[in-house]
Specification:
This protein is mainly alpha-helical and 702 residues long. It has 27 helices and no strands.
Length: 702
């Protein structure tokens, strides 16, 4: 039978044909890990099969990275578990308290990380739970138990690496780079329209640009895993995103003010637009992948580099002409020039990534990482949820000393840690529960109908092969793919090949019920304790962004007249980068949830940055101005009043009069003759446009 015929039959039976090969390969790797662990005489060889399933990934770089983090997380978790068991000296109360605190810490740190670093933190939490809750016997027996856990993890990871490495493809670098370049081309096209028509794009067009940039930002989440070159490419792309959003902000200010780009008469705007148009055309050509012919790849790369250099040269000439005319360089030109420079640096990193080069150049190693968004609110909630729930069940365990409670705590710890960062954890629990029910049913089938025929431990191991392959088929089928990973994890955690079998069918059934109770309890916890979903995550992020304005005003009031963040300083630039990243995350959440107010997010970003920039510039004026006249002292008092009302704005108790008083304070400040004209105009914009825009969004949040 030909390969095409097999593919047709598999598709007709409801299998995802691209996933089927990966699933069967992983199932064989899991069985091989179990076989090897049993041959090595490890006490829990089925843990090796679980590790093989957990670290397997479709792409080679992700496979390596996840395997490393699984091993590192296991080492940290086992080390903590050993220390806690030795400290507790068989006191269940100490074990319960220590495990709850450790799980809370791991949940907190894991929700602050990105990529597989988050997985490593979560794994450290439930690896400790596995050792603490499954350890039976005297305290001294913890050492062989801990070594068994580590060796089974190493066996599973290495087996998965050896088997899957031969078949897993490399990451598709060209796909991400092409999408990033098309998003940047859209931003440049908006700049071209502004140069040629002297009119900034409409808010609808700007919202589309933000959505494209947000899609790229989401793809960058896992892209750096497993490759130092990819990490530098990802860092360069983050800088491109930051500079692109800076340009979008400047174009948005022009659109708000309905003014043209103020260029000197000597500056040929059409020539600049043509240089950008040539660059846009080069960006829209999809990059050739590594497997493409070297001549085509070099020709395309050279064309893009030449277009970048020509655009940069044209912009430098334009800036020189503006300065020669004695004018100030417009902010939009400055933002565009910085974007072109970031794109040139990114081009070098992308070419090395496309060519598969391993060693980045010196200036890429010195490229500073941008401060990206971290979900502090979600991390605190996850810590309270995981730590509090496990502490409550730990008290029940300590009072009853019932082993099934400890076994249920193990499954619950996995659910509360691993899935706490998911988009909608309580919905995910439904798929997890279904998957674990299938896995428990397969395990019971093996234990009650197949294993009784075994004459030795080796026969029990080989009898697991059909069930391992069944787990792979469940993983690849359209109806059971959601939750199929938990099918295999539940099946292998219940199938410990110990010959001869004892205890009849009641013990396996009670263990299976304890395992599936984990996602069922987790569903209740996720529904009742800080319930979260995509909509709530969006609202939390929006509230965090809005809260930055009064928080900045409070910091400026606390420091008095000296400025903490002078305008143009490195700290202010890093703050803007974090704001840009949060805005992209917010846009992506809004697109996923089809949030009705997502069309206002561009105005939200404009108002947030404009208002915080006004606060920093006002503080700069307070620092640099000598209050020698009554007018200046009155302006200083009004500036302090504006800061105070901004700091009090947006508290827990929503008072509609707050907005009126806040707008009045900024409007009165803008009318003061002692304030520089540019800052006075900015204060007036804050009063008339930015405060109402932010308040309108605040009213839409529950």
């Amino acid at each position: 039978m030909s390969a095409s015929t097999c593919t047709t039959w598999a598709r007709a039976l409801g299998f995802h044909t691209p996933v089927l090969a990966f699933a069967l390969r992983t199932a064989l790797a899991a069985f091989a890990a179990l076989l090897l662990a049993y041959a090595l005489g490890l006490e829990h060889p089925h843990w090796a099969a679980m590790s093989a399933w957990a670290c397997s990934q479709p792409m080679r770089e992700h496979l390596l990275s996840r395997g490393i983090y699984r091993f590192a997380g296991s080492v940290v978790g086992v080390a903590f578990a050993v220390g806690l068991v030795l400290l507790a000296q068989e006191s269940i109360w100490v074990l319960a308290l220590g495990l709850a605190a450790w799980s809370a810490l791991c949940a907190f740190l894991g929700n602050l990380q990105r990529g597989y670093m988050a997985y490593g933190c979560m794994l450290a939490g439930y690896s400790a739970a596995m050792v603490i809750l499954l350890h039976v016997g005297p305290v001294a027996a913890i050492w062989p138990f801990a070594w068994d856990r580590l060796l089974t993890v190493v066996t599973g990871v290495l087996t998965a690496l050896c088997i899957s490495w031969c078949f897993a493809p490399r990451r598709r670098t060209a796909v991400l780079i092409a999408q990033s370049r098309k998003a940047l081309a859209g931003v440049l096209q908006a700049a071209i329209a502004t140069l040629r028509q002297h009119v900034a794009p409409a808010p609808v067009e700007m919202a589309v640009l933000l959505s494209r940039l947000a899609e790229v930002e989401e793809l960058l989440e896992l892209y750096p895993e497993g490759s130092r070159t990819a990490r530098h490419t990802s860092r360069a792309m983050h800088w491109q995103q930051h500079r692109a959003l800076d340009l979008v902000y400047q174009l948005g200010l022009l659109q708000r003010a309905e003014v043209a780009v103020d260029l000197a008469p000597e500056v040929p705007a059409e020539q600049l637009a043509q240089a950008l148009a040539s660059l846009v055309q080069a960006l829209q050509a999809a990059p050739e992948p590594q497997q493409a012919q070297q001549a085509q790849q070099a020709q395309q790369a050279q064309a893009l580099r030449q277009s970048l250099q020509q655009a940069i040269a044209a912009w430098e000439a334009a800036v020189a002409a503006v300065q020669a005319a004695g004018q100030v360089v417009p902010e939009v030109l400055h933002a565009l020039y910085l974007l072109l420079q970031a794109m040139h640096s990114g081009w070098e990193a992308e070419q090395r990534d496309l060519q598969g080069q391993r060693r980045p150049v010196a200036h890429e190693r010195r490229m500073a990482p941008l401060p990206l968004h971290r979900d502090w609110v979600g991390a605190r909630q996850a810590a309270v949820r995981a730590g509090g729930t496990l502490l409550l069940l730990g008290m029940v365990w300590a009072l009853t000393e019932w082993r099934l409670v400890a076994f249920g705590m193990l499954g619950l710890s996995v659910m509360l840690l691993v899935f706490s960062g998911f988009e909608s954890p309580h919905r995910t629990m439904a798929f997890v529960l279904r998957g674990q029910l299938i896995g428990a049913a397969l395990a019971l089938l093996c234990q009650t109908l197949v294993w009784p025929w075994a004459q030795s431990g080796w026969q029990m191991v080989w009898m697991l092969l059909p069930f391992a392959l069944l787990g792979g088929l469940v993983f690849a089928h359209q109806r059971t793919a959601a939750g199929a990973m938990d099918t295999n994890m539940a099946m292998f955690i219940l199938l410990a090949p110990v010959f001869p079998q004892t205890g009849g069918w009641t013990q396996p059934l009670s263990m299976a019920l304890a395992v599936v109770s984990g996602p069922a309890l987790a569903w209740l916890v996720y529904r009742g304790v800080y319930p979260t979903n995509a909509q709530r995550r969006l609202q939390t992020l929006a509230r965090m962004m809005l809260a930055e304005v009064p928080a900045l005003a409070r910091r400026l009031l606390e420091e008095g007249r000296p400025a903490l963040w002078p305008v143009g300083s490195a700290a202010a630039a890093l703050w803007q980068a974090q704001l840009h990243h949060r805005l992209l995350r917010l846009v992506r959440w809004a697109d996923k949830t089809q949030w009705p107010a997502r069309g206002q997010l561009h105005d939200l970003g404009l108002s947030l940055r404009a208002m915080q920039t006004a606060l920093l510039q006002l503080q700069q004026w307070r620092r640099d101005t000598i209050l020698a006249t009554p007018a200046l002292r009155r302006t200083e008092r009004l500036a302090v009043q504006a800061l105070q009302r901004t700091a009090a704005w947006g508290g827990a108790a929503r008072d509609p009069r707050q907005q009126v008083r806040l707008q009045a304070a900024w409007r009165a400040l803008s009318a003061q003759p002692g304030l520089p004209p540019a800052l006075a105009a900015q204060a007036l914009q804050v009063a008339q446009r930015d405060i109402p825009a932010l308040e309108a969004l605040r009213q839409q949040l529950p």
